Amino acid sequence: MSRDEVDRAIVGLVAVYDRISAAMFVMDAHPALVLLRGGGLRGRTAEVAKEVLAAVEVLWSQFAALGAQLDRAKAVRAERSRPGESELRVLTSVLRHPIVGLSASGMVLDTLAAGTPASWQTVPGLADDLETVAAEVVHALSEVEAASGRIAALYAQPSATLAKASADAANLGGDALRGSDVDGLARKLGDAQAEALGDPIGASGPPPALVSEIDALAGRIAGLAELRTAYPEKLRILTIAVGEVAEAEAGARKVCDLALTKIANAGLPPVPDAVGGLRAHLAQLGQLQREGRWLRLADELSIVERSVSQAMEQAAHLYEAADGLLQRRTELRGRLDAYRARAGRMGLVEHQELAAKHRAAQDLLYTSPCDLPAATRAVVAYQRYLNQLTERGNP
Fold it and tell me: What are phi and psi of 225, to 5 degrees?
């Protein structure tokens, strides 16, 4: 090599060495390297760790050899401003000839005692290989870091949900956490995350069943917090509703009493009296609220709401049943009057047998208590006989 060629080669190697130094610094300070060196890895991440750590060891060996050869070349070149034949021969050997012995794994063999090289490499070739492999290792480390970040992000939401639920429950006090196992869920979540971080490249997010448990707990505690705020309004609405039950039961009782008086064998059940129990239950709710027994309050509140709804429904059904009996009697009376008017238009009012059937139906309908089945049969009998007379054309 000429002097100019030597100088250009050294300058080029210094530039490459500086780039490799920067890449080696990034690699050595990379947080993913700590993870890969920590052990306890599994799956695809364990495979990557084995490959990367082996490559890092080779890189440091080759990097040290590159630096030593570059220092040697710079030292020989610095001996004279115009190197002679002997210096140029040494520099040519360093800068062009395959003088770096490598093992089968790529480790530099500095002495014969270290073993017989499996291959030899030139200093520029070593520099090119180093730059390529260092970039590949940094890229692999970045992929591991990205995978770890993805796992952390996937676990961040349920962790935050669980932490908020725990804080909200502590703020509620009372029995907000009774029956739940925040600590147990936290342990499960931590174990699952540690398991995932053992193989972040191949792992997925938190187990769906665990996330569902955490969401259910958070939802329940959020519901209890909402209950604490909404309780006064809920109590006011329930109190009004219980008053409406009292009115509905009073109305049902009134119409039932009338039906029992007016209709024989009405078959009506006793009028329920749910108001007293409901009002006692409301008082119990107040005690639970004052004691901060939120879980019990939520359960009892649901029971009262269902009981109010059922009491209203029962009162309405009973009212409809009793009123239906009275309406049936009224309807039969109207039908009998309509048939009587028809008989009058046909000139059959004085018909002896028809008049007897009318009296029988009328007596049943206007006697208290009224035998509705018998009255119904009597009205139908009157109607049929009237139809028969009409079809025969009797005067």
Answer: -65, -40
